[in-house]
Protein: Protein RBL-like
Amino acid sequence: MNVPIIDPLQGDFPEVIEEYLQHGNMKCIAFNRRGTLLAAGCADGSCVIWDFETRGVAKELRDKDCIAPITSVCWSKYGHHMLASATDKSLTLWNVVNGEKIARVTLQQTTLHARLHPGSCTPSVCLACPLSSAPILVDLNTGSSTVLPVSVSDAGNGTTAPHQRNKFSDGSPPFTPTAATFNRYGDLIYVGNSKGEILIVDSKNIRVHAIIPISGGSVVKDIVFSRNGQYLLTNSNDRVIRVYENLVPRKGAAKELEAMRSLDDEFQGIEKLKVVGSKCLVLFREFQDAVTKIQWKAPCFSGDGEWVIGASASKGEHKLYIWDRAGYLVKILEGPKEALIDLAWHPVRPLVVSVSVAGLVYIWAKDYTENWSAFAPDFKELEENEEYVEREDEFDLMPESEKAKELDINQDEEVDIVTIEKDSAFSDSEASQEELCFLPAIPLPDIPEQQDKCFGSSSKLEDSNHSGSPFSIEAAQNGQAMLPTSSPLEVVGNSTAEEVMGTTGLKRKRRPSAKGLELQAEKGRKPLTKIKPSAKLSKSKNKHGDGLDTNGFVFEDDVTDEYL
Structure:
């Protein structure tokens, strides 16, 4: 994806909150390699995957065995798998496409950060950083684990042995979380310990190749590589973020370090490891707030490695500090009055995503301003009206200046529209491996609508029409339909009945007398016959409501079954 062409007004770093995402109480986030999907771990043990282009939920992963809050999420290299660690000491590997759980491993301590091996297409090995012990290499297939060395004293036998003065009175190890991360291809592991040192460990034979001491000797809380593997970032307890330049080749780094150790025979032991370390990492920049001396949280690089961002660890503050690689503070972003707990920079776009303690995910983006000259280089914005002098050949069909610019173009040359150019940001992608960039949309079934309540009411009306009341029986004999007693048309006064009949367009007979009932019964047995119109007869019959109209025809009630 060529981002500069798609968005010519793209800036370098975000400035304002564009929008926020809400789904439960989210605790941690992570982008996939392309930045098209965003994974978030929730407090109820579930993981939500957002489609970052549409900002909608693409999939939700839920394990019935895990109801503890998620502490970290991590994508595999090609996005087909995702690893989640929780406070119940579990590590769960998911298949993102079908949402199935592949493996689940329970450790002895709670994992703060977990990372999948970046060099494997189908990862089975992960790096876990527990709460208060050394980092562990975990095989997700077998459940076996290997403890990594965190000091030079245990470099020979591969076991952890914290310094005696740092132990508690009962001899248990101290509460000092240790940070660790893979390099770009996963053949080396960089471990930051509590004595202010960076150890470079071989991930295969668990052997320490080099040691890099950090000035100040403070506990290393975070250690992060840039996307291209050229720079390494550390966050120490002395409130300083340090950036180191990586001098080791990206590929074959473990073999290169082994060769460096074999060639240098002048020093032995710890001194030799430090000499090798000086050839691996060189301090490049230091970032800190010299005024407030605040602690930093979740520092990381931008997608291209040109910017460094860190969040304030103070309670009730949602502040982001952005520096350029030269060491200058370029922007301070202030968010809502909610403490920040996690942070991630988009892999290829100037977007930052942060998680607040309230469980909301905020998206920070560039505040774009209209600049029409970016689309047309010869476009000039005017502050005020200016008098324009027309050129002599300006409106000619073919100006002389255009004739001079006419180029010789071979129209028969074939244009290659099949070959895909490799993006420099994803130059290590394998053509044979299909990368998961988007998840297919699964439509939700419609909620069945409730049955019409009028259907039940109409059946009740029919039952009431066939009830054994004398008026219904009589109406059935005369072929007429009578309204039920519960009908809204039954009124007490004549005026009300006339109003209702006028509004509905229906006619209704008054209740007949005893003599009228007898006459209706007799006429029901005889066919309808035409009667000569007589003023006296018409007047008398209509007076008693016997059903004769002015033309001498016997009429029936206009209220039919259609009304019911």
Summary: The CA atoms of residues 438 and 461 lie 56 Å apart. The radius of gyration is 41 Å. Residues 453-465 form the longest helix (13 residues).
